[in-house]
Amino acid sequence: MKFLVTKLFGIVAVLFITIMISCSDDSNGSIGKTVVMNVDPDLVSVGVRPPGSVGTVQVMKCTVEGSNQTLYINIGDIEGFNYVKGYSCKLRVRITPIDNPPADGDTDKYELLEIISKQSI
Fold first, then answer.
1. Residue 58's beta-bridge partner residues?
2. pTM for the full model?
3. Which of 42, 79, 71 lies closest to 58 in space, CA to CA?
4. Are the beta carbons of 39 and 77 closer than 8 angstroms?
5. Could you please report the per-residue DSSP string of 4-48?
6. Mind listing the pLDDT tens digit of every residue in the chain (121 residues)?
7. Segment holding 3, helix H or strand E
8. At a CB cut-off of 8 Å and minimum separation 6, what does 50 contact?
């Protein structure tokens, strides 16, 4: 009887752990967070050289609501969103950390969930 109880407890423990792991996993194995962000209507230059010179990059300036976090995201890096110059957008975005990102690459994946608003400025 003691053997049967021990075996049953082991099976229940394995099932519980399996269910917990499967419920907490996203499709890529990482858990993301959902944020609302505001995308500025104009691109900004980032880089070590003066704006407009060779070596600078034009990116979207995105402010995360409810925090003082500003993200500078490359055009096209928010999956499902097409940036249009001159439009201020409010977006709901899922941010998922990238497992083992390259040393010189993005550390997060951005996925558009909803365009909350889009206004011409």
1. 45
2. 0.68
3. 42
4. no
5. HHHHHHHHHHHHHHHHHHHHH--TTS---EEEEEEE-SS-EEESS
6. 555 445 544 454 444 444 444 444 444 455 789 999 999 999 999 876 666 666 678 999 999 999 999 999 999 999 999 999 999 999 999 999 999 888 888 899 999 999 999 999 8
7. helix 2-24
8. 56
